[in-house]
Design a protein that fits this description.
- This protein has 2 domains: 66 residues, Rna Polymerase Sigma Factor, Chain: A (Orthogonal Bundle); 96 residues, Winged helix-like DNA-binding domain superfamily/Winged helix DNA-binding domain (Arc Repressor Mutant, subunit A), CATH 1.10.10.
- Helices cover 68% and strands 4% of the residues.
- Helix 2 packs across helix 3, helix 2 runs parallel beside helix 4 and helix 6 crosses helix 8.
- It starts with a helix and ends with a helix.
- It is mainly alpha-helical.
- The longest helix has 25 residues.
- Strand 1 and strand 2 form a beta hairpin.
Length: 193
């Protein structure tokens, strides 16, 4: 008899989950905005992120896909957007001058005392920029094309993926590997000095 009762409870629980009401989007939006404000310290950016998360949610539903826990899904989207925002704000340790290939060390302000860490070696930004042309020249053509397009010409990874007919994830992976190989090549150049 106890076994039957457990089955009834299980069936009632499943039925209750299947008939759960749709989420309160106004409440969810305000929760998302509150979470974003704590992370990015900007009300306007937080509102944009919450709006973007909800837009993606409705697009996802419109495609006929099912989201079992909308709140968790939306918060994950917002966390990803916050991570993307932090990555976009963080300057790349090489800077944008790397794409000029012929860097004049006198053109870089040496008085700022900017030091960069390349592997275990700490080096001044001026010295790093003088090594950059040799390091870039030793990369393969795909790496040079990605780094050159992104840093010198301002192409986005989405543009790379569209032009090459690959996914955005594959484009991000190629950029990550190109940066990694550039870092390795800079370490080799520094060790050879």
């Amino acid at each position: 008899m106890l076994f039957v009762g457990e089955n009834v409870i299980a069936v009632m629980t499943l039925t209750h989950q299947m008939e759960s009401p749709p989420p309160n989007y106004v409440s969810l939006r305000s929760q998302l905005i509150g979470y974003c404000i704590k992370k990015v310290q900007s009300k306007y950016l937080a509102e944009d992120m919450a709006q973007e998360a909800l837009t993606r949610y409705f697009d996802y539903l419109q495609k006929g896909k099912v989201i079992h826990n909308p709140r968790a899904w939306l918060f994950q989207v917002v966390r990803n957007l916050i991570t993307d925002e932090y990555r976009a704000r963080r300057p790349h340790y090489v800077g944008h001058e790397w794409g000029d290939y012929e860097v004049d060390p006198n053109s870089i302000d040496a008085d700022d005392g900017a030091m960069c860490a390349v592997g275990d070696i700490e080096v001044s930004r001026v010295e790093l920029m003088t090594l950059m042309p040799r390091a870039v020249a030793k990369l393969n053509s795909l790496d040079r094309r990605y780094l050159d397009g992104y840093y010198k010409h301002g192409k986005t990874l989405k543009e790379f993926s569209c032009n090459e007919g690959i996914s955005l994830t594959a484009s991000k992976g190629r950029m990550y590997r190109a940066r990694h190989r550039l870092r390795e090549q800079l370490e080799i150049e520094l060790a050879a000095k």
